[in-house]
Give the backbone structure.
Amino acid sequence: VNHYNRKYIARLYDSGKLDQSFNYTDTTPHVPTDLALQADGKPVVTFTDNSAQDNLIARLNTDGSIDPTFAVEDRDDDYFYISLRDIAIQANGKIVVAGTVSSGIETVNAYCQRVNADGSTDATFQPAVTGTSINAISIQSNGKIVLSGIYKNNYIEKPYSNNTITRLNVDGSKDLTFNNYSGVEGADPSTYARFSN
């Protein structure tokens, strides 16, 4: 970036020039997939896992170093592979992450979790998610959570569902007032975009 080496993440000024005071120096092999800024300016980053038994969310200090006070609880070792695709921060500071989990190629499922501002799991959030993958999260002004992704049950055998967008209430339950978007049956129904209110 502007003739300087940076590993995966760089911060630029409004002019596009590299901010040399920010240097992400994480030594793990994970590739960042998304980030969101907290109100205090600290970035929270998600990663793809590729079967390593490590945490997949990290918070950075404003200089790019890892914030050790953000202690994410260990992942469930029953999962062989986790890839977090998106992250969103709610108005109360809680962090919603989503993506894909798998214990084998024929058991791929969508994954969604909420963590508190200190990195601990929010046990009150029990998301009603189905399908294969969640690609994008949007938080509406009323706190409801819009998820989009690939809603089929299996990469190989089972057919696509035609619902690719769903909305959850603040507690993670399915919002039954939301008329899920329906794609064309048999076509690839993947959605990736975030949504505004």
